[in-house]
Amino acid sequence: MEKPRLSFWQIWNMSFGFLGIQFGFALQNANVSRIFETLGASIDEIPILWIAAPVTGLIIQPIIGHMSDKTWNRLGRRRPYFLSGAILASLALLIMPNSPALWIAAGMLWIMDASINISMEPFRAFVGDMLPPDQRTIGFSMQSFFIGTGAIIASALPYVMTNWFGISNTAAAGEIPSSVKFSFYIGGLVFFLAVLWTVTSTKEYSPEEMEQFNKSEIEKDPSLMRDRYIEFLPYSKFYKSGLVWFLIGLVLFIAFDLFIYMDYGLGVFFGGIAVFGLLQLFVGFLTKASKTNNGFVVVINDLFKMPKTMIQLAYVQFFSWFALFAMWIYTTPAVTRHIYGTSDTTSALYNQGADWVGVLMAVYNGFAAVMAFFLVWLARKTSRKTVHSISLICGGLGLASFYVIKDPNLLLISELGIGLAWASILAMPYAILTGSLPKNKLGVYMGIFNFFIVIPQITAAAILGFFVRTLFADQAIYALILGGASMIVAAIMVNFVEDRD
């Protein structure tokens, strides 16, 4: 019994919720640095304030993935998480632009990102649940289309509010402009309604149907249900690995603190390495005590049993998302300082530049939406690896070009390369990955795969502030050049990935 092929409009309906999810993410990416600066954050403090977002994803996504694998209720398997995350994220979007102080804005970013992640992670597994293997590339590309479409509107909203409706884009020192506030209010409404559309228009398969579908796929590829995904690793492995990770984090923390330089970002980074080691030691203790019947032990075991293709993609994802996070953090300060020549957040010139950053992000997301289905066609003619490699090279060159371009309008050309990379990043790795995953672990492995999205973001948040302050003389434009180089490294590493599906 094989999964039936779905029509275009069925795939459309099941992916439509991503329009709302990306609406929230795009507002966050385009405006949070602006909000932080407005509330008094210095240029080198911005990365550590952003660290809430990837840390939240690191914690939330594998947990939600594991839970959604085990969930079956009246709403289904994944849909309960779509809906609950949408409600929480919509409320957070309403509150975020009204933050009266910097620490409150940082806390709201944490809450908002956690809520978005609750909705987003099950959407990735949803494609694997609902579509047969030969339709998964189009499924993830449909998500890319809605991601791009939602982000076009959301990123440009402050600009539209000001230039089309005359809503002010400036405010007194320490206050968020009205154009930004209204954009977040609209975003909260769109997020909820888009996810609600998917919840009400798409019915999930029953547990019995899923069991039959999975049996059919496993018969074709028995490696998708090997015993190694069920058995637990020996406790000694976790003791040895955990001790090594803990000592590495501790030694780096002490060495930088005593002899080099230490700030909050580096402290969180090195502390995170040490904590990862402690978590492994704890898993070893639980395994030795035969207390393995819990999600925490299962997730860590699955992390150490990743399929070969997933391990190879992890390196590609690291360098891709390091570049993206550098872009999201530093595009606003890079453009306003390097091109518009101001760092005064109360000035009309700064806010003009910040609004233009929203337009730039709308352009790359719009181009991603347009190119999403073209990449599907091109992947069929060549290969998914070829498409992804070329796209990442274009994105890297687009990011690096910000340094040489002085006319803000010409940055629109740079965004086309970034948009091509973004369309591919949102589709090709997931399409390659899904064919290599065990069918009883789809949700948890999609959550674990998110590690290789958020770990580079945590790394970027931890070290970019140090680089900008000590090596780049507070010139954020060099962070974008570094991001471009990172994306080209990712393009090279794609060629070493095994695409089994």
Poorly predicted ranges: none
What CATH architecture label of the largest domain applies? Up-down Bundle
Largest sheet: none
Please name the CATH topology of the largest domain: Growth Hormone, Chain: A
Structural category: mainly alpha
Q: Can you give the mean pLDDT?
A: 83
**H/E order of the elements?**
HHHHHHHHHHHHHHHHHHHH
Query: How much beta, percentage-wise?
Result: under 5%
Which CATH top level class of the largest domain fits? Answer: Mainly Alpha
Form type:
globular
Measured distance between first and last alpha carbons: 19 Å
CATH superfamily of the largest domain: MFS general substrate transporter like domains
Number of helices: 20
Helix percent reads over 70%
- Rg, nearest Å: 22 Å
Tell me the number of strands: 0
Structurally, how many domains make up the residues?
2
What is the strand and helix layout of this fold?
Layout: H1 8-15, H2 17-38, H3 46-50, H4 52-70, H5 79-95, H6 102-130, H7 136-163, H8 178-201, H9 207-220, H10 235-259, H11 264-288, H12 295-304, H13 308-339, H14 348-381, H15 384-400, H16 411-425, H17 428-434, H18 442-449, H19 451-470, H20 477-494
Helix pairs in contact: 2-5, 2-6, 2-7, 2-8, 2-13, 2-14, 4-6, 4-18, 4-19, 5-6, 5-8, 6-18, 7-8, 7-14, 7-17, 10-11, 11-19, 13-14, 13-19, 13-20, 14-15, 14-16, 15-16, 15-17, 15-20
